[in-house]
Each structure stands twice: as structure tokens, then as C-alpha cells.
Here is the input.
Amino acid sequence: MAKVEKRILNRVEGEVELKLVWEKGRIKDAFIIAPNFRGFEFILENKPLLDALVITPRVCGICGHAHLIATTNALENLYRENGYEIEVSQKAQLIRNITLSCEIIQNHIRWFYLFVIPDFLKFNTDLKDFYPIKGEKWRKAVYYSSKIVKIIAIFGGQWPHTSYSIPGGVMCEPTQMELMEAISIVDNVLEYFENDVIGMNIDDYFSIKFLEEFLEKSKGDLKKIIEEAIKLGFSDIGKAYDRFLTVCNVSPFISQGVTRRKKCNFDVSKVEEIETFSFLENGKSKFSKGKYSWAKAPRYEGKPFETGPLARRINNEDELFINLTKNFKGYYIPRIWARVDEIGKILVAIKKYLLNINLNEPSYIKPKVDIKNLEGQAYGFCEAARGSLIHKVIAKEGKIEKYDIITPTVWNLGTRCKNYLSPAEKAIIGLSDKLKAEMVVRSFDVCSVCTTH
Amino acid sequence: MKTLLWLQGLTCNGNTQSLLNAENPYIYEIFSKINLLYHPSLSIENNLNEIIDKILDKEIKLDFLIVEGAITKNKNFCKIGNYSISDLVNKLKDKAEYIIAVGNCAVHGNLPAVYRENKDICGLQFKFEEKKGLLPSDFKTKSGYPVINITGCPIHPAWFTQVLMALYYDRKISLDKFNRPKEIFMYLPHDGCTRNEYFEWKTEAEEFGHKEGCLFYNLGCRGPMTHAPCNKILWNRISSKTRAGMPCIGCTEFNFPVRENFFDTKKNMGIPEDIPLGVSKRAYIMISGVAKTLKNERVSKKLEDTE
Here is the structure.
């Protein structure tokens, strides 16, 4: 007889509940339940269009900046959909890239050290440096993740929850001296990344193409955790569907695309949101039988897709990660590695962005037409810490008629549809250990506040 | 060792994330002094129910109960295990020495309280301006304080950590009419703003993207009407929104989520509808007129071009 067990999953952003159905000692079915709902899409209705810049970042305290950028992109695209040119200087674009990148680094450091590694402490007490609050490694992670967001404060005034990006550019006008301060922060965090996280020079790290080579050369925390994970039997677990989605290009290390066996271009018209198992149906709450979470089920061409750093590596045809997906039958380890790997790639990119800013360009070019005159619909895309973020705005008489947000976590951790489980649900089917099941779910970087918003 | 328990209702986690940025003291320094019983994002073990039972059985003494996020009784919209956030607060409210609400959601209900389908969303002791929160208006914790409110969307970590440390060292703190610590919320973002010179001489920014110009007259800045020390205790210890160029949006006030057009100053016949705190409309008009007739060379140029 199947036995049903409910567990709260803590140490994620917000809380989710796991409902596991056990049979013969294995997980036969799994439900990921996001039980909290605030109704942001409805709060946005009838608000002036620009107010979305203030409201959407408040969907999430850890990736709110990504929501700001997605809203900015949606509103700029709304101008274009209405037939108006909108000019954004390269300087403004670089500054947006920099602040968004800093938020992602902050997220990845906190996720790895505060959310993922503590699970390993339950197996092995040799990792006492990583112990929450007391451990030196935990403390460093807090220190450097807080340090990197100082750059967002330099340009945007604060993190979390600035709204300094606006259609037409950014609100700040930094001086050269502020750029120098930002560069010194990047250098400092990069040094930490080399010394502690990967335990090797970053250029040497980027030249690595194989697992064995990394394990041989690295002396860092990432290596320690990968070796632990291999020892504990994580090599074979955590695979979802082998289908990966990325919606934006961030040159040179992120390329949009949809990969299942082969890679195609992303086309937003192929995205749909299924509400069969969600408490939210047609904009109303509904608690009928079978419904189990506030999350919906986004599908691309009817199929579930995994999004996030691993998807970005696969869609970027990164040799190391293509090899890793061959090394490991399950994707728990590649998923963790991809997130940590991205910290290095982004740090190097931020420094280039900072050095490429031409301070003589304008920060903001006022759109020629008042936003109150815009109608119709537009999309805004963004690659956030956890993966692809899609905003869709429908405007009427200068106000928001409807606003739709598809977060990365709803791709990964949303509800099932008639034919498919969500990627994270699929990834824990067949496991015999509930701690390992929780760890696989955490490998997707759970954010329940984003999943339901 | 004193103890602290952190609960979350309807939240974006922004206050927790902001707290992780704390300096002097850093979060790990706080929790070397105070025993963190449970925090949903930081604790290794998922043993909240066990801890609550021990508090109720008086096995553990609870000093600080911290609540982040808006409150609702409706378990369909917010659930922690089998409980609603209001169940948990009600269980613990008479056990804690102090209850601290962190962030506008826990204090006033904030954005979640605007959602039309769940009408019972509120803060711990307030709903927006009114004392109609979960706990009665005359509620006091064992220490004699009402719920101590740290507003902000999100809080600045120092606003919370400094108050927490004051209480830890058994110091007295005074509260304002929204039960916010006076020494934090007696300042306005206007105090210490690098654009103050432009405010004095009524040199108004016409558009975004400049380090010069005051953001109050055209761009919606709430700096002179909001209680928060954003330009005294800098954000991330490095800057603030108004210093960078973003208008203050008044996120420490009860009416933050019901206001609209954040980047536009509402005016009647050229006079801002809301004028700086403590100033009469007549005084504002007079002093503006005088400032405008007298010219300050410095504030009429880009900073690079000044003497």
C-alpha cells in the first residue's frame, strides 16, 4: 500500500511542502506544494504603468532586481509595439547588466553556502567550517554576498528593492570614482571566488573541460562538495527531463535557446500556462479536489522544461557541462556546479562592463511619447538567478489592464499537467531517501515566493 | 543566553535578505550572542513545531519573537505546516518578552493587504493606518512594550539590529505613534541627502539620470515627508536611493502600497500637494519664491562645471 508523507522544506526562499507517496521504499509520486499566495498580478491591475517598476521587484526579496529589469524591458517593448522608437544608451544598458549580474552572484553564493551545503553536514561532520552562523565558510559567504550587492547600491541606491531602471535608461549618473569603487569590489569578490570557492586561478578554471581535471587541480569548496556528493551517491540522481530553456542572450556566456536533443530558438508564442492543478484558475482562487499548489504549470510546446544555470550552460553549448551531463547519469551535481560556475563567468563580465562604460553618454533618454498613451501588449524577458523570467503587460489607457509573470521557479517547481510532472517532481521519483529527495529539490534553487507571487 | 525565533507570514523574504547584509553587527555576530531558535531560511533542522511546543511547555524561554510578512488567518493563502501565521503568533504572543515586526508587511499589511480576494490580511497590530491588526490595540508583551514596529519595504538591517541590541542590553527605547523606535524613525530621507543644496535653492531635476537637482518637485520624491534615516544610515553602507538618483517612494509609511504614480509629483497650480513635514503651505510658497529669485550659481550648473 502506498504511504503518503508530508514534509515542510525549509532553508529555501520561503517555504514549500513536499507530499511524497511511498511504495516499496521508493518515492512513487511527488507533489511540490507552494502554499502561500499574495496576488501580485492582481495588485498590479489598474495601476499606472510605471508603478510596475516599484511593485514587481517586491515579488521577491532575493531576485527582485530581475523583476525590475523584466518590467523595464516589457515597458520598453510596449513603446516599440506601439510603433515608437525608444533609445537606451549603451551606458545605461551596461549599468543594468552590472546590477542584475551582482544580484545573481549574491544569490548563487547564498544558495550554495546557506541552503545547499548545510544538508551535507547531516552526513559528514568534517565540514564544520561550513556550519551555519559559526562556520568560517558560512560567514565568508554572508560577507562576500553582501559585499557584491554594494555595487547595486552604488548605481541603484540600495539592495534589495531599488527601482532605479526605467524605460529610457537608468536614474543614476555615476562618476569615474564610483566606477573605481565598484571595480575594487569586483576584484575583491573575485579573489574570494578563486581562493575559497574554486580554489584555483580563474583562467585555469575556465580552461577545464573534464570532471577529473577539475578534481585534480582545484582545492576549493566546490571540489569538496562535489567529492562528497559523489561519495554519497548523488552521481545518478536528480535528472528531470533533459529539456532546457533559456530566453535571453547575455554575451558571451548566455545564449537563448530551447534544447531537447537539438537546440532551437526560443519563441514565446509556444509558451502556455496550465492551471489544472493550481489553486489559481482564470484569475480566481479555486480549491477543488486535485488542485494542490498556487503555482501554475508553464509548458513550451506542451512540454515541461528546466531553466536556470544548468540550462544556460547546455544552451550555450559549454563543453565542460556537456561532458558533465555524460559523466553523471543524474543532474544533481551538474546543477549545483553550473550555479557556482556562473559566479566566475559573471564576475569577469561585470569587470568588463565596468571598464566599458562611457560616462559621457546619457544615463537616461526621455521617451518622446508619454507612457500614458500606450496600449496593447508586450513581453519583457530576463535571465534571473534561477533562470528565465517572463513578464507580459497588457496596457489600456495608460494603465495596467493585466500583468502576467512566469518565474523561473514555476518552470522548475510548478504543478504538474495532465501528461507531465514538473521537472523537480520528476527529478525525485524513484528515490529511496527523503533527505536526498529534499536535496534534489533544493538543487533547483527553490524560491516559493517567486513560484506563486 | 537570550533566544530569538523568526516567523514568516506572507512575505517576499526581502527583510531576511536585507538582514543578511547587516554590518556592525554582522548577522553571525548577533547570533553568537543570541540563540537563534529557528529561522525558516537559515536553520539546518526543520524543527519549528518542536521548538514551539518547548516554548509552550516552558522548557525554552522566548525573548524575541520576530515576525516578517503580512498576517492572515486564512490557511488557503498562507500556511506553515498545519498552522496559519496568525495561529502561530497567537500561540506565542504571551510567551515572548518582545515581539518585533520587521518590514511594512508585518507592520501594516502592505502590498499583500491590497489583494482583493483575501480581505483579512493585516499587520501584527495595524492594518495600514488603523490599529486593526491581528493583536488588540492595547496588546503588550511581557516586557510592557507593544509590538515594536520596524517599517520599510524592506527594512534596513541596521534599523533592526540596533533596536535588537538595545533591547538585548536592557536599554529603554521610545516609540512613535506607529510604535516605531523613535531614534530610528525621527529622521527623514531628506536629512543628509546629497541633493539638499538643490532643494534649498529650488533647483528641480526635470528628468532622471543626473546627479544634480532635487527630485522632490517634479519626480515624486517623498524624502521630506517620510520617516526613515536612509541618508543617515546609508543603504548597504554605501549609498541611498536619492543619492543615486531615484526618488524616495515612502516605503516606510503605512500608505506606501495605496499611493500611485511614484515618479510624479502631484501639484495644484504649481504647488506640490504634499509639502515637507513641519512646514505650512504658506511658508513653503514664500521660501520657494525667495529662493527662486535669488540665484545660486553653483546649483545651476553640472557639478563638473562649478568653481
About this structure: The longest strand of chain A covers residues 3-12. Residues 61 and 347 of chain A are 22 Å apart (CA to CA). Chain A touches chain B through 80 residues (CB under 8 Å). Chain A has a mean pLDDT of 96.
